[in-house]
Amino acid sequence: MVYEMKKIDSWSNAMAGLGYSLRDKVQHTEFTAGSTLSDETLESLYHSDDMAARICDLLPDEMLRQSFQIQIDDSNLSQDLHKTLDALGAREKFNEALVWARVYGGSGLFIGADDGQDPNTPLNLNKTRSVAFLSVLDKRELQPYTWYQNPLAPNFGEVQTYRVENAEIHESSLLIFQGTRTSKRRRTQNNGWSYSILQRLYDVMRQFNLSWQSTAHLMTDSAQAVFKLKGLHAQIAANKTSDILQRMELVDMSRSVARAVLLDAEDEDFKRDTYSFSGVPEVLDKFMLRLAAAARLPVSLLMGQAPAGLNATGDSDIRFFYDQVKAEQEHTLRPQIQRLVEILLASRNDESDFQITFPALWQETEKEKTELRKIQADIDAIYLQNQVLLPEEVALNRFGTGIFSSETSINIENRQGILESDLA
């Protein structure tokens, strides 16, 4: 007698076989760990597969599409700092480093700072004289060499120095970018690096490309010509294949000359069987949605087309994606830019406070801009009427920088002075 094992703590039905290992097909489905994609495979995917390249490029491109701004009270210093960043190609270098981190699972930006010390020692900001260059390195060029060993330190277990060719570089001279979120155990197995963003997408990309390739093959056979010839088997058996080929050539010739097929009414027939593509577009759409979901990208941006149809993605999806881009700017890009700016200011012996801002990604139409100004003007009128704001404060907040702003701030010290003089 064969006893069926029932899955513990699950819904089951003995009559239907639901939840029983031998009869329930679902119970035989399990997750099997796959192999890690090699760096060579990842490189080939990025350079040869357009979807893989777009998935790796889109988020970094959007993160830096409007670049970034460094705000310092000293306007001359701010302009000089932006010129230095442009000369170093900081925007392009950050973009490239982010892309390689997504492709390979990790990358680094080497800051060519001159502090008069060996590069395998911690960068000394007090002795930094200049920053000559920024160099992008992917994880294949950055080999972890030594690790922090103090178990009581916050950086315990992290990489201390990297090997680049024959040089040893301390991590303080590098801006490290990781790929997708990876557990600490897996990062240890992967020599300190995360997984590529393409690791999770590989099976979905394979299914997506297979569906499109299969459709392309169907297109080549969408209309198959069929020529019926009486006694075909007998002629083949009698080694009269030359006669058959000659007859086929005459049929093709008649089609090209008279645009018609000349046939014997008694023993020949010619027809064309066509394949129906009904339902294929809908299936391809589902594969597109599946790939977009796996890549966490809107279909319209991933496929490079405007949304259409009942299931189309629109502004809401793009806004959601821009929120994701904003989060990546804050958590991934801002700390790296801040570190670079600190080093650049140190090379000038300057300790000025600064702020990093990322321009809005969503571009408003002229109509939307006008409507926003109208709403803000109505709000300002209420504030002025109730003496919450002064006319000078409204003018400076809205147009003080030369660009309209809806942000409002007041000088608390001046207000307190006015209040004290009124009370006196």
How would you describe this protein?
- The chain is an alpha+beta fold and 424 residues long.
- 48% of the residues lie in helices and 14% in strands.
- The chain contains 14 helices and 10 strands.
- The strands form 4 sheets. The chain has a 3-stranded antiparallel beta sheet with strand order 3-2-7, covered by helices on one side.
- A hairpin with a 2-residue loop joins strand 5 (159-164) and strand 6.
- Helix 2 crosses helix 4.
- The longest helix is centred in the last third of the chain and has 33 residues, at 315-347.
- The protein is extended and about 115 Å long.
Name the descriptors.
424 residues; alpha+beta; three-stranded antiparallel β-sheet; 14 helices; 48% helix
Major β-sheet annotation: 3 strands, antiparallel
Beta content comes to: 5-15%
Question: Any idea what the radius of gyration is?
Answer: 33 Å
Q: Tell me which oligomeric state these chains represent.
A: single chain
Number of helical segments with 4 or more residues: 14
Distance between the termini: 101 Å
How would you summarize the topology of this molecule?
Elements: H1 39-48, H2 50-63, E1 69-71, H3 75-88, H4 90-104, E2 106-114, E3 130-138, E4 143-147, E5 159-164, E6 167-170, E7 174-178, H5 184-189, H6 197-220, E8 223-229, H7 232-237, H8 241-258, E9 268-274, H9 280-295, H10 299-303, H11 315-347, E10 355-357, H12 366-385, H13 391-399, H14 412-423
Antiparallel strand pairs: 1-10, 2-3, 2-7, 4-5, 5-6, 8-9
